[in-house]
Amino acid sequence: MKLKLLFLFAFALTLIGCQFSETMVMNADGSGEMTVEVNLNEMMAFGGGAMLDSASVKVDTIIHMKQFLEEKRDSISKLSAAQQQKLKKMENFNVRVKMDSETSEMIYAISTNFKNVAEANDILNGLEQVGGMMPGDKTQAMKTTKEEGSQELIGVNYTFKNGVFKRDAYIKDKKMHKQQVDSLKQAEAFMGGSNYTIKYTFAKKIKTTSNPEANFSADKKTVTVQTPFIEYFKNPDLLDLQVELEKQ
Description:
By secondary structure, the protein is α+β, with helices and mostly antiparallel strands. The chain has one domain (12-245). Helices cover 21% and strands 33% of the residues. It is built from 8 helices and 12 strands. The strands form 2 sheets. The protein has an 8-stranded mixed β-sheet. The chain has a 4-stranded antiparallel β-sheet with strand order 6-7-12-9. The radius of gyration is 18 Å and the shape is globular. This is Lipoprotein. It comes from Aequorivita marisscotiae. Residues 1-21 form the signal peptide. Keywords: Signal.
């Protein structure tokens, strides 16, 4: 079974109806779990299932990257040093892929458990490479980023020090980013329903945040911020966030 897959930031049409979410649960010692998910259910419901080569598809699998890379070590050894290093950074990630053509479900998610939140800094890069990790077509993971058509355009740095958490997004390749933004202009009207949501839960109550649009849970331990995806793609700083926790 071979599936035609979507890649983050690849083509405007693939973003129609997509919902992006980034969730984190952080423990008192700074360890925790980060997950980035792309939900394509809406797109599937409007005919996106035609992208699948098979008439009926049901997949719900978790790929443990450490095991996957070990199984593919011979193929990986033939890649360039830069490509090997990129894959090495995914070692502690797990990828979940869920597809059901009958119920119009399609979800890609990548997650990692961290001892320090900085270990999650490569998670978006990992999400861009999810396409090559599908069952039945795993050799695709050995292709280069260029061959896959994926571009590493936006990165995020996470830090947590002295009770202060920071999320700082940045553009990796400004020239390529501008080209991609320009190419999406004609599709903006169709992308209004696509959002990027961040939701972070901490062990202590939140004292202050830098984003005036942030919403909080009743216990003040969870903060949520949402923005239209196209606006975030144009200006990643929209989801920059600083969270100061209470000391007690």
